[in-house]
């Protein structure tokens, strides 16, 4: 299926909202961006989480953390987005930076139907505070 | 499945070889990097090509073209690689640059089992010669 310009715009907006919510929203507000039966695999190769309850659970680790995300590169094609981004997490002892490439597919309403995050510990840097 | 360090190294080498062959090798030499029954979707959302004959056919357009590819960012996780790269094609009338994000999965021997390229015409630039 080829994306209409409308769907492409909707996907772009959803990615930007997603990255914004990583820094500012609760885990359930992040999970609301996903379709009801969506799947999440982060990092790719780890067990797949399915549905909003499991997906909310995944993001719970961000609920009490000072983190923010910046978009570096976004590509959209059909119903798929791939984007390179930077997540900076300020811990009491250190600042941790990771720059994954995420791959997401979307339904026609712009909800995420699947997410796979491609990164490894080698892509993280840690700077003591 | 989680990547062993060995498989991760093999995937990294395969991606680098792939980008190198885009500039220097024949379409069949590029197709040899794929598993026998691999799939290719470029751009994502277009019809899937399956097997080496169809994949060779896809790359035939590069056979007589002055092109080269540079890796910008590579992430590997499990059996999946995602990479942002730049392809520069020198045509008689113009230089065309496109910077897709490709997502590839690999078998244990380091052959590509699937490739999806995420990009759209908006990601291309053209400079008249």
UniProtKB/TrEMBL annotation, chains A, B:
InterPro entries: NTF2-like_dom_sf, SnoaL-like
Domain SnoaL-like span(s) in chain numbering: 17-114
Name the record gives this protein: Steroid delta-isomerase
Organism superkingdom: Bacteria
Annotated SUPFAM superfamilies: NTF2-like
Signal peptide (from-to): none
Pfam annotation, one family: SnoaL_2
């Amino acid at each position: 299926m080829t994306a209409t310009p409308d769907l492409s715009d909707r996907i772009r907006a959803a990615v930007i909202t997603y990255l914004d919510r990583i820094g500012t929203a609760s885990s359930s507000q992040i999970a609301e961006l996903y379709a009801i039966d969506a799947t999440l695999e982060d990092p790719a190769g780890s067990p797949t989480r399915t549905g909003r309850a499991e997906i909310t659970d995944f993001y719970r680790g961000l609920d009490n953390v000072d983190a923010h995300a910046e978009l570096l590169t976004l590509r959209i094609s059909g119903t798929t987005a791939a984007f390179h981004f930077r997540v900076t997490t300020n811990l009491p002892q250190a600042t941790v930076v990771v720059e994954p490439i995420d791959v997401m597919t979307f339904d026609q309403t712009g909800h995420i139907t699947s997410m796979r995050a491609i990164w490894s510990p080698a892509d993280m840097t840690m700077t003591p505070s």
